Amino acid sequence: MDVSGFTKNVSYAFVAQVISLFASLVTSLVVPKVLDSEQFGFWQLFIFYSSYVGFFHFGLNDGVYLIKGGKTRDEIEHDEIKAQFFCGLVLETLIALVISLFAIAFCDEGNRVFVLCATAVYLVLKNSSDYFGYVFQATNETRLYSVFSIIDRICFLALLLVLICFNSPAFQPYVISYLFARTIGMIYSLIKAREYLNAPAIGVQKAIILAIDSIKVGIKLLLANLTSMLILGFGRFLVDEVWGIVTFGQLSLALSLVNFVLVFATQFAMVLFPALRQLKRRERLFVFTSIKDFLYIATPMLYLLYFPVFLLVRWWLPSYSDMAAYLGLLLPICVFDVKMNLLGATFLKVLRREGLLLVCNAICLALSMCLSIIGVYSLGDIVFVVIGMVICIVLRSVLADGMLSYLMDLPLFTIKQAVEICLTAAFMLAVTLMPLKQAFLIVLAFCLIYLLLSRKTLNRVFEIVSNQLLRKETSK
Question: What is the DSSP letter of 201?
């Protein structure tokens, strides 16, 4: 592995996510102070819909990513990259037109029509810019993708702060700012991809054949990602349908706060994929076990962060008190989704086992749909829906870990995983049933016991980190 290049890519990704995190903090904690509950709900609805537009390339981007992953820019065919880009652009533009016409023809509420039309525009912008973002990731030029993200987030953050300063009461200007920022980021992406865009044309028929081949490869990963998002998304669709836009906004805000840590995991996984593709099996096994040990120690400590965050949110957003109650139940999603992003999804893609990833996500989606339907239509209890989401996310992480352990000849299930799940259950029970101070003491005690029981793993993590630091100093 090129340690220097890997470190540089991680540094760029880290900067991008710090900026993204700051923008998310402003969006999650300041925008609700400016917009009323209904307007904020529509803003969250746009963010929710826009998170699914990446699936309308039907696996084209994922296929290019998987096929070209691990190669350099000089090793891939520029004309083929260009041809598939324009195939995708035409397809996405047609889909965007269909969505817009559907919204205008069948939606009675003006705000929902605006949300759907804006989502259609974002569909074209995102998939066009992300296409070359996937190419950059595949060729280990992830710093270019990170710079694109930095430009996008800085533009949006600047416009967001202007809107907040002028106390803009409607959600539409925030959506327009979001689209404008993505447009600026897309322009940067196209500039950096001009080497591909300047390549000679290869003909429509050959371009379509190449695009179909990429879709065939990427469709499993696309469906795996879609089912992954729907594990949480299906319940949110039902919440919006049954309890309305205000309750949907409350739940979405809680999920956005939980997802703060996930943005770092996602970016690190993006850098990790092309580097792992270049490693031998033994080296991959070492990286897998090292990351697994580190996450086993680090991620459960996130439960202690719940208490200061809960107090901050309750003080800063008193009108969102229901959201603060959801926050404690949803926090385990952060812990187990971090593991899923860094270990499960990344290593299954590296091993080209997208089918297993799809099976894992599909099983958990089916369970999530059943629990959400029961919670919404039979029990009428949103807490049951939230707990069902968490159970499915935990199950998905355990299943993916078991699949990887089988492929790497490791134990399928360990006592450490059982202890981690017990800690999670203790946390959820404590924050649900006890006063805040007592819950904090209980969770703190469990975390200390957890670390005590995990001292061998903790020592191993310290040893690995120390060796890496020593090696870095020696290389200087």
Answer: P
Instruction: Tell the residue number behind the tokens 């975390």, with chain if given.
Output: 447
Phi, psi of 200 (to 5 degrees): -65, 150
In angstroms, what CA-CA distances link 428 with 26, 123, 189, 469?
A: 27, 37, 43, 37
Tokens, residue 351: 């091993």
Return the residue matching tokens 């959801």.
Answer: 326
The tokens for 434 are 């006890």
Amino acid at 147: V
The pTM of the full predicted model, rounded to 2 decimals, is 0.75
Please provide the DSSP assignment of 237-285 as one string.
HHHHHHHHHHHHHHHHHHHHHHTHHHHHHHHHHHHHHHHHHTS-HHHHH
Asked whether 153 and 160 are in contact (CB, 8 A), the reply is no
Residue 474 CA to residue 13 CA, distance in Å, equals: 25
Q: Is 418 exposed, middle or buried (0-12, 13-18, 19+ CB in 10 A)?
A: exposed
Two tokens at 41?
Answer: 């709900």
Using N-to-C axis directions, what is the helix angle for 321-339 and 281-298, rounded to 10°? Answer: 150
- Encoded amino acid at 152, one letter: D
Q: 140-145: long-range contacts at Cβ-Cβ below 8 A with a sequence spacing of 24 or more?
A: 140/5, 140/9, 140/70, 140/72, 140/274, 140/275, 141/73, 142/9, 142/12, 142/13, 142/270, 142/271, 142/274, 143/8, 143/9, 143/12, 143/13, 144/189, 144/192, 145/270
Q: What is the Cα–Cα distance from 129 to 152, expressed in whole angstroms?
A: 11
Q: Which residue's entry shows tokens 């670390």?
A: 451
What are the counts of helices (DSSP H) followed by strands (DSSP E) for the chain?
A: 20, 0
Provide the pLDDT for residue 470.
46
Q: How far is CA 19 from CA 24, 83, 151, 234, 456, in A?
A: 9, 33, 10, 29, 36
pLDDT (tens digit per residue) in 130-149: 888 888 877 777 778 788 88
Q: What is the pLDDT of residue 115?
A: 92
Give the pLDDT of residue 441: 92
pLDDT category at 14 given cuts 50, 70, 90 is: low
Tokens of 158: 């600047």
Distance, CA of 71 to chain centre = 25
Q: What is the mean pLDDT of residues 23-32?
A: 77
Closest CA to 212 of 84, 335, 95: 84
Identify the weakest region by mean pLDDT among 178-192, 241-255, 417-431.
241-255
Selection from 205, 192, 78 nearest residue 133 by Cα: 192
2 token code pair: 């090129």
- Identity of the amino acid at 261: V
The answer for residues whose C-beta is within 8 angstroms of residue 212's C-beta and 6 or more apart is none
C-alpha–C-alpha distance, residues 215 and 63, integer Å: 6
Q: Are 70 and 274 in contact (CB under 8 A)?
A: yes
Taking the C-alpha atoms of residue 48 and residue 232, their distance in angstroms, rounded to an integer, is: 11
